[in-house]
């Protein structure tokens, strides 16, 4: 009996040790719960004078997910049923919990909830969920929404429709990060404008479907570019520089401005360091690689590719600008003279018609 009593006392002493061990093994549970409560204390304010009001109840989250849910956490979160006690507070708590499950940090959630005051917490969660489903990680999503908060005002139906369209263009599954950094308005611009750019690249520039996808991924700025300017840039590369389609795509040529392209190409050409290939694609001198012409800084371009000084290049750029101004003014004069000639021809035709009418009138009078 005495031995049994000692055993019971030993069990009682082990109970606090067991709870302490469990706390050490699962520190993230308490930490995430404290983070959620902390955020709710910061973000839930009373309407009378802005006094901060703590939620009396914080939902206990089960962060141990099933294997299926781990594969697609966002889909599980979207399909999960919630039973809020207080609509506003429970919705905010649910959104914060969902964002934590997606991998957003405490600081990121705090800033995202305040980046667009007009958007609701549920709207924020819906938009972010679409970005995650497109293959973006939390950090790029946070950067994009901070840079372009107007995306949070998009109707979720439009967002999902545009996401589906981008997948058809091959811009899903992680390929959207660079596009969003460079051209976040891809979600707000008219779909017809995107279609026009894609059609130009396919039909007039004769790029393949795979090449168009690579161009949109590596050079998203083409979506903002004037179509006439974009077509001329391609023609300059293909006919003037002799660059073929695969090299245009590989070198990311279309992301550079036409001014930069012409300055560096013509400068190398006049230095005798670049030559347009003949019909067989051959040159008398080896041309430098396109990445050594366009993808490097101006200092590196002058030092390694052109082997020239900064002063010489600056003088050349001024002379080239004057040449282009002169050419444009000449073409304007020629166009104006052509218009004047057409006007004179029209006047002569009108006079000839008047003379014929007068002759006809005289003949009628004689008769």
Automatic annotation (TrEMBL):
Identification of the protein by name: Transcription termination factor 4, mitochondrial
Subunit structure: Heterodimer with NSUN4; this interaction may be required for NSUN4 recruitment to the mitochondrial large ribosomal subunit.
UniProt GO MF annotations: RNA binding
Region (Disordered): 321-367
Organism: Colobus angolensis palliatus
Residues annotated as transmembrane: none
Phylogenetic classification of the source organism: Eukaryota, Metazoa, Chordata, Craniata, Vertebrata
Acidic residues biased stretches: 339-367
Recorded GO CC terms: mitochondrion
GO biological process: mitochondrial ribosome assembly; mitochondrial transcription; rRNA processing
The entry's keywords: Mitochondrion, Repeat, RNA-binding, rRNA processing, Transit peptide
């Amino acid at each position: 009996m005495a031995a049994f009593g000692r055993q019971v006392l030993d069990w009682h002493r082990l109970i606090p040790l067991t709870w302490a061990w469990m706390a050490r093994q699962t520190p993230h549970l308490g930490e995430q719960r404290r983070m959620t409560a902390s955020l709710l204390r910061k973000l839930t304010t009373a309407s009378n004078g802005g006094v901060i009001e703590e939620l009396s109840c914080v939902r206990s989250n089960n962060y141990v997910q099933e294997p299926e849910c781990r594969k697609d956490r966002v889909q599980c979160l979207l399909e999960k049923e919630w039973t809020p006690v207080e609509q506003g507070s429970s919705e905010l708590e649910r959104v914060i919990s969902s964002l934590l499950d997606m991998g957003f940090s405490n600081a990121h959630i705090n800033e995202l909830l305040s980046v667009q005051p007009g958007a609701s917490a549920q709207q924020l969660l819906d938009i972010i969920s679409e970005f995650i489903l497109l293959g973006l990680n939390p950090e790029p999503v946070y950067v994009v929404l901070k840079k372009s908060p107007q995306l949070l005002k998009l109707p979720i139906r439009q967002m999902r429709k545009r996401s589906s369209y981008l997948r058809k263009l091959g811009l899903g599954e992680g390929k959207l990060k660079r596009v969003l950094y460079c051209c976040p308005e891809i979600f707000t611009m008219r779909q017809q404008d995107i279609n026009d750019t894609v059609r130009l690249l396919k039909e007039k520039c004769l790029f393949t479907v795979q090449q168009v996808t690579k161009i949109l991924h590596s050079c998203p700025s083409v979506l903002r570019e004037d179509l006439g300017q974009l077509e001329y840039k391609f023609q300059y590369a293909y006919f003037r520089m002799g660059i073929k389609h695969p090299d245009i795509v590989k070198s990311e040529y279309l992301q550079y401005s036409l001014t930069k392209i012409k300055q560096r190409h013509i400068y190398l050409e006049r230095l005798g360091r670049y030559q347009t290939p003949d019909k067989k694609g051959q040159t008398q001198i080896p041309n430098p690689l396109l990445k050594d012409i366009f993808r490097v800084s101006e200092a590196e371009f002058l030092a390694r590719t052109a082997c020239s000084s900064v002063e010489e290049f600056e003088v050349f750029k001024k002379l080239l600008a004057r040449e282009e101004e002169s050419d444009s003014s000449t073409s304007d004069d020629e166009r104006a003279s052509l218009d004047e000639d057409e006007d004179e021809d029209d006047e002569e035709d009108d006079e000839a018609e008047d003379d014929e009418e007068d002759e006809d009138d005289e003949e009628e009078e004689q008769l």
